[in-house]
Design goal:
It is a single chain. It contains 17 helices and no strands. The protein is mainly alpha-helical. It starts with a helix and ends in a 19-residue tail after the last helix.
Length: 404
């Protein structure tokens, strides 16, 4: 049987687009952790580091839907290039402010502006796949592949930023992240043959994608899953520090991504008969159950495999959420729908990083990891309560299995 991922990559002009987007997305997994590592190294406070990362994540959340609507209206390239320039400038300001002990207001402002201008390559490439493969049975596989690529980003990025920040200069990790954003963003913008055209004028001022009740449920799920990721990002770094294995922090976060990436590869290759909303609920229940042991483990060698197991449920949750979003909103609002889920994830990361950072400072890393279980359980409950509005309309589904 033909490999479905290879079939997707054989789409004309797809491979350069995917490679450019991979480079451009690496900063997504590096900036937040890099901020925590840099601020903690300079001030000794994980709480402050988590708060700085949270400000950047909230700013990204607020700007995401706006950038998505601009991209729909005027084209991705015309939006991406000025956003990229502002991101690099804001990041440089943040680095100088932290190193030179400038007032915290400047530090937070730099982090916020950098977050607001974080290049939305992840949402943009999903929209490109939707443009290239709309109506094709290969589209769900393409979206699953993008979630797998996201997990690859979270394998490489945390290890890279942790190594550079701890083994070299404290700013080396973030400088590398900003450089990769610039290179990847420019390469992605250069892929003109896969860029969807701007929407017709009559679509630009249409109703927001958030008018969809289903997307509102997915937004709540995204916040909860983001809280899981934000908590793990901070708490696992702090856990490694508490057990005198700080260099293992990147390995722990990469372990989470490895588990998620492997499950995502398998998930996207399966021809599912189970309805999408049921798949999403099952993945979230599994995430809740698998995260429970993290609160109890005190040895880094034991923590690694359990983190990998927890990661197994992350990618299926995101794949199901993004696929549902594409099917539940009008065609003209798909970009905005994807950016709303990205916004939700960013809000959740901000909440998770901030709350868990404070818990770490007061009660330790293991106590902070309880936030993972609570957030995942809340997401599963939201899906159970909203199962009717997550039913895919028959006319939008490529397979009857998506509808039931």
């Amino acid at each position: 049987m033909a490999n479905p991922y290879l079939q997707v990559l054989r789409t004309p002009h797809a491979l350069p687009m995917v490679l450019a987007a991979f480079i451009g997305r690496l900063p997504l997994s590096m900036v937040g952790l890099g901020c925590v590592l840099l601020v903690a190294a300079e001030t000794g406070s994980y709480g402050l580091g988590g708060a700085v990362a949270a400000v950047g994540a909230v700013a990204a959340a607020l700007s995401g839907p706006f950038l998505g609507r601009l991209s729909d209206a005027y084209g991705q390239r015309r939006v991406l290039l000025p956003v990229l320039a502002a991101f690099v400038a804001a990041g440089a300001t943040f680095l100088v402010a932290v190193r030179q002990d400038w007032p915290l207001l400047v530090v937070f402002a730099g982090a916020g502006l950098a977050g607001a201008c974080l290049p939305p390559v992840s949402s943009m490439i999903r929209v490109r796949w939707t443009h290239l493969l709309r109506g094709s049975h290969r589209l769900p596989t393409a979206l699953a592949m993008e979630s797998v690529v996201d997990e690859m980003v979270f394998v490489v990025g945390p290890v890279l930023v942790t190594f550079l920040s701890t083994a070299g200069h404290s700013t080396a990790g973030l400088v590398t992240a900003f450089t990769l954003a610039a290179v990847g963003g420019l390469l992605f913008a250069a892929q003109r043959r896969t860029e969807p055209p701007p929407l017709a004028h009559e679509h630009r001022n249409g109703p927001s994608a958030m008018r969809s009740d289903g997307l509102k449920v997915l937004f709540a799920v995204g916040v909860a899953v983001g809280a899981v990721l934000g908590t793990l990002q901070v708490a696992l770094v702090a856990f490694a520090d508490e057990v005198d294995a700080r260099a293992m922090s990147g390995v722990l976060i990469a372990g989470l991504a490895v588990g998620s990436m492997v499950s995502g590869i398998g998930w996207g290759a399966v021809h599912w008969r189970l309805p999408l909303r049921h798949r999403l609920a099952g993945a979230l229940v599994l995430l809740t159950v698998l995260s429970v042991p993290l609160v109890l483990i005190e040895d880094v060698g034991v923590m690694v495999p359990f983190v990998v197991l927890t990661g197994v449920a992350v990618s299926p949750s995101l794949i199901s959420a993004f696929t549902l979003a594409e099917l539940l909103v009008p065609r003209a609002a798909v970009t905005e729908a994807f950016t709303w889920i990205g916004t939700a994830l960013a809000v959740g990361v901000a909440l998770g990083a901030s709350v868990s950072g404070k818990i770490v400072d007061v009660s330790g890393a293991n106590a902070a990891l309880a936030v993972v279980t609570l957030a995942a359980g809340a997401a599963a409950l939201v899906v159970a309560l909203g199962r009717q509005v997550l039913r895919v309309p028959a006319e939008h589904a490529a397979s009857p299995a998506l509808v039931r």
